[in-house]
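thought: user wants a sequence for this fold. calling inverse folding tool.
action: design(structure=
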């Protein structure tokens, strides 16, 4: 039988303290580890729902998993954004025995202006997604629900029920609502042919600005809590692949630059392991793409900042992330291949 130790922020005195310097130098001790499952970009269409059920079964059978984090896109980009589909996928998530925390993806609302998505106004779909996926703000989904802190409890951010924060085995964790489609800067041109980068819809850019302000404030709070609680590490999950491989001035990175800079600055100041998890491009990867300026010129890798991307779309598998406050790296990542999904259509 599984036991659970995901702790809401209200239980501050229960937070694990980081290890001493000598302890942190040791190799990982599996007895000190707990893990969570990272998934996203699933199920991508009705045909993938069966594959996703196999992923759910695999996660439910994993002995050390205590939590599931879904990085958004509960539907394919070509599927309709109707209430019925969003509810159907939400209900499928409830088959997971552990707590489930979901952050929205661009397919879930931003791209719903597309004709084959139903031609919705995206902000209306975002409101509906929040209603369906966060029926009780501060309470996770899944069969073993846990309490988390939500940004809607912060003054001035009442709408942002999707931004969650919690402690997990000595690490501070959070979801931040940052999505693909250039974080919402891509025009809603299938419901408004006049909407463009040069002449943007006021309601679209207002939404982006407000959500970015919320994201930056939440990132600040995550690291403030990590410092105050002396957390061993920080994990931030979002949907978007933030195009770290593109030049800063590239148009398709403009929606992400402020978030990239804020995470990088905090990670450097924090000095302990920081993990950024995301989906979006459907390609499992584990790397260190974050850089910071160095003098007199140039950039250097931010060594303590790691990126992991989950599987997604047709590649319906999952990633197990082990967390150990007594390990120098804190986070240990292992892909979990669902064998029956390799050849199934």
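)
observation: tool returned 345 residues.
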């Amino acid at each position: 039988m599984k036991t659970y130790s995901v702790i809401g922020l209200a239980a501050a005195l229960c937070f694990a303290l980081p290890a001493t310097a000598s302890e942190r130098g040791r190799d990982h001790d599996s007895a000190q580890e707990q893990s969570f499952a990272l998934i996203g970009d699933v199920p991508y269409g009705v045909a993938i729902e069966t594959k996703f059920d196999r992923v759910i079964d695999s996660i439910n059978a994993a002995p050390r998993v205590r939590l599931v984090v879904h990085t958004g896109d509960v539907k394919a980009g070509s599927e309709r954004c109707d209430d019925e589909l969003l509810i159907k996928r939400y209900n499928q998530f409830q088959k997971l025995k552990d707590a489930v925390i979901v952050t929205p993806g661009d397919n879930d609302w931003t791209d719903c202006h597309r004709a084959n998505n139903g031609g919705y106004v995206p902000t209306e779909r975002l409101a509906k997604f929040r209603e369906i996926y966060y029926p009780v703000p501060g309470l996770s989904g899944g069969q073993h629900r846990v309490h988390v802190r939500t940004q809607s409890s912060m003054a001035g951010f009442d709408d942002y029920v999707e931004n969650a924060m919690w402690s997990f085995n000595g690490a501070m964790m959070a979801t931040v609502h940052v999505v693909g489609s250039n974080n919402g800067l891509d025009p809603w041109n299938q419901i408004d042919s006049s909407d463009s980068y040069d002449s943007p819809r006021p309601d679209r850019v207002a939404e982006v600005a407000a959500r970015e302000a919320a994201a930056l404030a939440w990132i600040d709070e995550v690291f403030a809590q990590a410092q105050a609680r002396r957390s061993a590490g920080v994990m931030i999950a979002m949907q978007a692949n933030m195009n770290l491989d593109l030049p800063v001035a590239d148009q398709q990175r403009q929606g992400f630059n402020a978030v990239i800079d804020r995470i990088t600055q905090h990670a450097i100041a924090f000095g302990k392991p920081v993990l950024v998890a995301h989906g979006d491009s459907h390609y499992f990867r584990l790397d260190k793409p974050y850089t910071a300026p160095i003098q007199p010129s140039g950039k250097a890798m931010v060594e303590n900042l790691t990126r992991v991307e989950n599987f997604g779309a047709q590649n319906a598998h999952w990633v197990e992330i082990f967390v150990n406050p007594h390990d120098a790296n804190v986070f240990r990542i292992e892909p979990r291949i669902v064998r029956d999904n390799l050849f199934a259509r």
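thought: summarizing for user.
answer: Here is the designed sequence. The first strand starts at residue 34 and ends at 39.
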